[in-house]
Structure formats: C-alpha cells, structure tokens
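User: What would this chain look like folded?
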Amino acid sequence: MGFDYALVHIKYTLPPAIALTLLYRPLLQRIDVYKILFLVTIAVVSATPWDSYLIRNQIWTYPPNAVLGPKLFLIPIEEVFFFLIQTYITSLLYMIFNKPLFHPTFLVDRGSAVAKTEKRLLGRTIQTVLVLLFIAALVALNLSAKGKYLALILLWALPFTFFLWSLSYSFLLNLPTSSTLLPIVLPTFYLWLVDTIALKKGTWMIASGTKLNIYLWEGLEIEEAIFFLATNILVVFGLVAFDYSITIIQSFPNLFASPPELPSPILLMKALMIDSHHYDGQRIAGFQSAVERLKKKSRTFYLASATFSGRMRIDLILLYSFYRVADDLVDNAETETEARQWINKLTKFLELAYLQHEKKHNISKQQATIQKFVEENFPHSSQSALQFLPTRYLSPKPFYDLLDGFKTDLNFLKLRHGKLIDNFPIINEQDLELYALQVAGTVAESFLELAFYHTRAKTSLDQRKRLQSAATRMGVALQYVNISRDIETDAKIGRVYIPALWLKDEGITCEQILTQPFGLAVEKMRDRLLALAFKIYHEALGEMVGLPPEVRSPMKVAVESYMEIARVLTEKNYQKKDGRAIIPIWRRLRVAWRALSDYSCF
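Assistant: Here's the prediction, encoded as structure tokens.
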C-alpha cells in the first residue's frame, strides 16, 4: 500500500479540476451536468476492459507500494479515478471555449460550394486514414512485441474515433478551430507533464518488451504521449457529437416538437441519424442572419445571450433580431413618409402573424400568405427576422407598443428635413418615460414571456404581474442608459431624447444639443439620466429573485451587462468608438461572472 498515485491526483489533477469548476460554476446548467456525466460514464465503461487487459497481460503495471490497494477488475482505484478526472477537466475546458458560440449557426457550412466540397473531402480522407491506421495497428500487433502497447492503444481508440468523427465531422469542421483544438491541446500537454513526473518516479510503468523506446522528450514514452492525445481527442469528439445532437433537437421544432430538457441517449442518437437534407435550411439561415445582426448592432446582448440555453436562447436571439430589424427600418428611413410606411408594413405583418394563431384551419395557407407579404414588402436581409419571430407564445401588445414608440421618432425625421414642429418630441420626464416604456419596456416584457414559456417553474398570476411590472421598469432603466450613452450619435441623426424642460433649466435648447452634443451642460444631463436609470434599476432589481431559476442568473447577466455601460459613463475618462463608450471584453466577462455568481440557478 502506498500513496504515490493518490498524490498525483492531489497535486496535479484535482487542482486544475477544482479551478475549472470554480471558474465555470456560475455558467453551469443542467444540460452541462448531464453532458459531463454522460461522457464520464462512457469513458469509464469503455476504458475499463481495455485497461484491465493491459494490466492482466502485464503491459503496464503499478507497484504495490504506489497504490492504495482497492481495485476494479485489477485496475487500481486511482486509475479509475484518472479516467473520470481527465474526462471532467477536458469537458470543462471544452464547455468554456464553446459557451460563447451559438451552435445552431454551425449546422450548415456558409462557405462556397468549393469550400463545402473540400470539407467533405477532408472528412472522408480522415475516415480513410483512421481505417488505414487501424489496419496498420492490427498488423503491428502480430509483427513485433515492441510495438504491442502502441498497437493496443490504436486498436482501442481508433474505432471510437472513427465512429464519433463519422457522426459529427460535418458539424465539427464548421466550428471555430479554437473551440475544439484548444480543449484537446491544453489538457494533453498538461497531462504529458504529469505523466513524465509519474513515469520518472515509477508510479506506473510500461513493460520494457512492449514499447518502442522512443521518447517525445526525456521521460515521456511516445506511447504515453499518443495515449493522452488520443483520449482527449475522444473526449472532445464525444462532446462535439453530443452538442451536435442537442443542437439538432433544439433547432428544429418540426423534427422535435417538445423534446425533454435532458434527452435520452436514444433520442440523441436519433437526432444524429437525421440526414442534413431534412434540416430547415431557411431557419438555419435565419439563425445566421440574426447572429450577424446582433454581433454588429447589439454585441452586449449577444454576449449575454450565451448564458441562456436551448430553445430559450434561440427564441431570445430571434426575438431581439426582430426588434433590431424593426428599429433599423424606421431609423434608416430617409423621410417621415418612408418611416411611416415601414411602421404600417410592420403593423400589417403582426396582424397577419397573429391571425394565423386565431384561425386553427388552413395554417399552411396563412403561413404562405405571411411569407409572400414579407418577401414582397421587406428587404431580403430582414425577411428571416420576421419569418421566424416566435409569435406563437408571445402576446402582440408589446410589439404594437413598440411601433407606437417608433411614431415618436417620426418628428425627428421632420426636423432632419427642415420641417417645423411645435416642440421636440420629448418635452418632459413623463414623455421620456413613456418613450422608454414603448421601445424598451416592451422588449423586457417579451423576454419575460419567453422565460415563462420555456421554464419548468410555475408562477402565480400575481407573481407574473409583479415580475412583468419590474421587467418593464428595468427596460426603462436600460433605455435611459442607452440614451445617455448615445447623446452624441443621436445628435448626428437629428435626435435629442433629453427632455426639453431639463435643457431649459440649464439655459440651453435642443437645437444647441444638435450642433454641440458635448460639454459641461451635456455631461450634467447625462449624469441626470444615469442617476434616474440607477434609481429605477435598484427599485426593480429586488424582484429578479422571483424569476424562474433557469433564467434568473442569465437575466441578471443581460441587465448587468447594460448597467456596466452606465458605470463606465460615470467614470468620465472612458474609451470611445464612433462616439459611444466601449467596454473591454475582460470587463464584460467579469460582469457576467459576478452576475452569475450572485444567483444560483442550478
């Protein structure tokens, strides 16, 4: 009995596992736990017979004075734990690198036909290489005892690798290289170092007659290096296949109407067996357009959306994409008449969209009518945002309120073209609040409706009303932050959202803000807006504890990400880009991590 192998875990495997757990814990969701348990189970079950065979045939051994004693099929309990802890560490690294990604956008390659052909060729080539390596290992096993250990590693690992690669290479090759390569390389290199220490100390040993005596570096046998590389590849390929399956299940309601939150292994395999020709290509294109739009126009929201999961995240992105499209159509209009036409077209679209839910018959005909209307009346780049708006479980009122808010902006278009108006649209604080309720409170209300629809928690009618009230107030606070940030950029397009009476108190006019949107007076107005935003934020924040657990922390991330803009604006010496305050990515991540840490949603 000895403690050498146990000390390897205490010194080298448990510390990174604990550190990664603490780092990822705020982001951890039920599906993540399920994924890790799924992979760990497969790793232990698949490696145990193979490892037991190696020990039984004395290809590798563990000195009795290096292990505690308990064994599973001749395998020291410390070795069984190694299967578990390695899979756990690699899984956490993979999830950290993949958390920001929106996987539905990678279901189909957006490259050229040539690029797609090249990827298919690469996939088939790697399949061929894996088969040839397997045959070579089979031959080597019978040719020389010296290559026995390496041959057994390959004969064990290659079938699993071939299977996982064949299932998911079309998805894997679409993912950013860093999201799959780094979770393989980092733990592999680290475990090479750990293995070198253990081999030199004699914690475990390879029988001299079964190895090639080739070293990657002093103390590290080439067989061991290949083993750790192969096992980490298997873990990452397994995680990719799992995510591929989950993404298919969550992305296509036409294929999986009401999937469970934690799909069974049978359902996971069923999803992977579906031919990609059955995917809804237009829906995937809609995902891709939405993500591109949000990355350009609402990066803060897009990053915050990564803390949501499943269909909740999908619908949030589709919903916010619609809001961005609607806002851009009106904002980019050259004339008041054009802007009003867009508002009328959006109104007509909403009428058609909600009419189909009222009439239960001829749904396909109604959907065709909606599609035709969208294609004939909206730019191609914005059509998917309308077509995939999840109106089925969202009430229409917030959308119509939003369009009423857009009508406030029409007066600014009159000013842009030299038309006289009696007053600027935002005269007093009540006008400001109404406008913020219409263009931002409505967004928050729709988000909350999605949360109620997609979560397991049951909330009473009174509780929902309180949460909706708090959500709309929080939306107002966030809009005040946007207005305070965009004073300069709004002035460039002829808009001033600071109440005219506030400006009058300082002896300045809206016209002066348009020509000179900076200076002490403007900073005073900005501070006043931010003070109001923080006041409303603190009033509404307490109600967030009543949100369904699955969305409580992610919702706080979304809120805090915007409120961090307000905090930056109060610092005065902040960085700007195109007239707007910018927040470094490290600061965004810190805010998200803190927000998630405050509330336990698991």
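The chain has two domains: 3-278, 283-597. If you want, I can go into more detail on any region.
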